[in-house]
């Protein structure tokens, strides 16, 4: 991307569901960014608290997209990104959950790191409330990056990555238009892994430790912590990704597939309720091998202007 004299136009996309107090904190933090945002698209995933009212109280900065049903994180990001691209003409999209509180300089550091480069994704350092790195949102460094790419990333104060999290992901808008949206049917789990690896296949991404956000989860835990019934989504979506997605090369699928099996075994060994995990594995394996995710225009049909924006962005899906 060439250097421009005009500052890039950044639109944040925040997916919200029943966490009005945290959403308020997130929106206040976005309003206080040292680099002003053009707009914040808040997707209210059919909350039954007053998250929508909290969003509307922030005035013209916020564009509230109300969904009539809970579409999960994956569907919420797909809907919000589609509306942002369709209505707000961004150069970059900044994606985050409603429990992600960016520090005032977070966006400034992300933009500085990618300025004048061909990086298409930049991710923040994610910490927990005590300031320690959050193991749930550790980026995957690119094991296939050559020495020149690693040095180039280091010169910008970062690390070359192969994937990153929706907990503060800055992604170039023209790349989103080229590759499409997150897959809504993933609902939760592995949607950001699939999407970031799809965006970064043949392109470059950067982890930017100077950009810091606080991920205010209830507990500090990694992705292989005991997930309970949600283990179904981990298994189904990972199988969908390995079997259906073009986000990884065949060799990468073998490497990451083996890593997933090891993680599943570790999760099972540590679990306090293995019967729930066995059920999640059985159902996840069945659906991951016998079904495939629907196109977004089907899974996100009937949601007003979000559905219309998706159909315009992904007309051939």
Helical content class: 40-55%
Structural class call reads alpha/beta
Quote the distance from N terminus to C terminus: 27 Å
* Sequence of secondary-structure elements: EHEHEHEEHEEHEEHHEHHHHH
**pLDDT < 50 runs, ≥5 residues:** none
Gross morphology is: globular
State the major sheet. 10 strands, mixed
- Give the radius of gyration: 19 Å
Q: Percent of residues in beta strands?
A: 15-25%
Quickly count the helices: 12
- Beta-strand segment tally: 10
CATH architecture title? Alpha-Beta Complex
CATH topology: Spore Coat Polysaccharide Biosynthesis Protein SpsA, Chain A
**Name of the level-1 CATH class:** Alpha Beta
Count of domain modules = 1
Mean pLDDT: 93
Protein name: Glycosyltransferase
Domain Glycosyltransferase 2-like: 13-167
Keywords: Glycosyltransferase, Transferase
Family: Belongs to the glycosyltransferase 2 family.
């Amino acid at each position: 991307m060439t250097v421009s004299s005009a500052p890039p136009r950044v639109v944040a996309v925040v997916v919200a569901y029943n966490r009005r107090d945290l959403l308020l904190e997130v929106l206040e933090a976005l309003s206080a960014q040292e680099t002003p945002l053009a707009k914040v698209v808040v997707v209210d995933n059919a909350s039954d608290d007053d998250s929508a009212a909290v969003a509307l109280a922030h005035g013209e900065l916020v564009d509230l997209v109300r969904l009539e049903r809970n579409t999960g994180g994956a569907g919420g990001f797909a809907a919000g990104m589609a509306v942002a691209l369709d209505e707000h003409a961004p150069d970059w999209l900044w994606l985050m959950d409603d429990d992600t509180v960016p520090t005032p300089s977070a966006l400034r550091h992300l933009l500085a790191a990618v300025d004048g480069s061909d990086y298409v994704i930049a991710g923040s350092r994610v910490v927990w409330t005590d300031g320690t790195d959050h193991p749930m949102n550790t980026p995957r460094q690119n094991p296939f990056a050559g020495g020149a790419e690693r040095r180039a990333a280091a010169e910008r104060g970062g690390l070359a990555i192969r994937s990153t999290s929706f907990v503060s992901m800055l992604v170039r808008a023209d790349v989103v238009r080229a590759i499409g949206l997150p897959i809504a049917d993933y609902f939760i789990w592995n949607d950001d892994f699939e999407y970031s690896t799809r965006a970064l296949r043949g392109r470059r991404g950067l982890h930017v430790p100077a950009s810091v956000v606080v991920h205010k989860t209830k507990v500090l835990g990694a992705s292989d912590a005991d997930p309970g019934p949600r283990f179904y989504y981990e298994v189904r979506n990972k199988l969908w990704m390995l079997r259906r997605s073009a986000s990884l090369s065949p060799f990468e699928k073998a490497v990451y597939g083996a890593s997933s099996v090891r993680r599943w075994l570790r999760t099972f060994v540590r679990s306090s309720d293995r019967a729930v995990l066995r059920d999640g594995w059985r159902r996840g394996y069945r659906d991951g091998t016998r079904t495939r995710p629907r196109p977004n225009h089907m899974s996100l049909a009937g949601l007003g202007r979000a559905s219309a924006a998706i159909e315009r962005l992904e007309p051939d899906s």
